[in-house]
Amino acid sequence: MLNACTTGEAATSNIAPLKSHIDFPLGICAMTAQMDDPQWKSMVATHFDRITPEWEMKMEYILQPDGSLRFDAPDRIVRQARLNRQTVFGHTLIWYAQDGEHFQKLKGDRAEFEIAYRAYISGVMNHYKGHVDGWDVVNEPIRDDGSDLRDCLWREVLGDAYIDIAYRAAHEADPACPLVLNDYNLEYYPAKRKRFLQLVEGMMTRGTPLHVLGTQTHIAADLPRGAITQTIRELAATGLKIHLSELDISLKEAAKNALDFRNYRDAQRALIEEAAEAYAALPSGQRFGLTIWGLRDKDSWYNRENRGVRPDEPLLFDDKGALKPLGQAFVKALG
Ligand code: XIL
């Protein structure tokens, strides 16, 4: 009798590896909890060049309350990637959303805080030196309305310089490592994109080491056409490499939680084609890679966090592991 995994493998065994269609790295996010699922493991090994740890390389996992660093889970991901001859992309060192007890305790003393801040960055970078092909150094620094940088503990203590300090510390720790600035909703809000690009220009003018711009591309199927292309073009005009870093396209968000997704599937397909075409149209030297935020629909963070009665369908593969029409459209548009 076939179990679910065998059935799923059969569903995908007749398709060419997705990565074989393109000449830039194709990435996927991963958690150690998924590594015991044989279908997930074999599909990830077959179809992708690069792994982004979905949360186990973040501060909330690595940094302990006493300031020590914990690497067991991310090390497992790195070992597995090496077995698959895949690279690992580091995500993420500094994020407004995560700080932790260690830094909260130090916030009254700017000098000590900065020492600990640099030590965290260099400690993690040194541990993964030679094992990752890039790092998101600062993640999501810009407010959605584009008015300013986001408020966070890092900015509160170190001022706006928290960003430059992070990139300089990262570059000192691993001068060969591509350093990325990553943000989301850049296609939704032109003002946010403008402020993001202002930050980038400032960093470039100051000689801050920055090599890649990440645009997450968590979008909903009702995003107007053209926004992704415009965003990729504007970011690429800086001359830096571009990482389309966390692609998924929600039907549920577009349907405003209604149960009927039918009216949004065509739009979803058109958007993934647009993303693939706009990315593939970049000069090859600017294509850092394109990363999908989850393998099968059931692996999506949207379904993990708010599954509800009608799970979302934002990814390329269905729950059984078959390439969906959305995935087929993506492959075709890349080719
Ligand atoms: C999300 C993960 O997918 C979830 O599993 C986790 O609980 C929260 O973070 N932008 C990012 C990613 O940079 O790190 C986020 O990932 C999604 C939004």
Total strand count, please? 10
Query: What structural class do you assign from the helix and strand content?
Result: alpha/beta
The average pLDDT score comes to: 95
Oligomer: single chain
Q: Tell me the count of domains.
A: 1
Distance between the termini: 37 Å
Bound molecules: (3S,4R)-3-hydroxy-2-oxopiperidin-4-yl beta-D-xylopyranoside
Tell me the Rg in angstroms: 20 Å
How do the SSEs run, as a string of H and E? Answer: HEHEHHEEHHEHHEHEEHEHHEHH
Proportion of residues in β-strands: 5-15%
Task: Let me know the CATH homologous superfamily.
Answer: Glycosidases
The number of helices is: 14
What does this structure look like?
- The chain has helices spanning 4-13, 38-47, 59-62, 72-83, 101-106, 110-127, 153-158, 162-173, 190-205, 227-236, 251-254, 265-280, 301-305, 325-334; strands at 26-30, 50-53, 87-88, 90-95, 135-139, 179-183, 212-215, 218-220, 241-250, 287-292.
- Strand 8, helix 10 (227-236) and strand 9 form a beta-alpha-beta unit.
- Strands 1, 2, 3, 4, 5, 6, 7, 8, 9 and 10 form a ten-stranded parallel sheet that branches.
- The model is unreliable at 1-10 (pLDDT under 50).
- The protein is built from 14 helices and ten strands.
- The chain is 41% helix and 15% strand.
- Helix 1 packs parallel to helix 2, helix 10 packs parallel to helix 12 (265-280) and helix 12 runs parallel beside helix 14.
- The chain has a single domain, classed as Glycosidases (TIM Barrel).
Write the layout of secondary structure elements.
Layout lengths: L3 H10 L12 E5 L7 H10 L2 E4 L5 H4 L9 H12 L3 E2 L1 E6 L5 H6 L3 H18 L7 E5 L13 H6 L3 H12 L5 E5 L6 H16 L6 E4 L2 E3 L6 H10 L4 E10 H4 L10 H16 L6 E6 L8 H5 L19 H10 L1
Parallel strand pairs: 1-2, 1-10, 2-3, 4-5, 5-6, 6-7, 7-9, 8-9, 9-10
Helix pairs in contact: 1-2, 6-8, 10-12, 12-14
Bound molecules: (3S,4R)-3-hydroxy-2-oxopiperidin-4-yl beta-D-xylopyranoside.
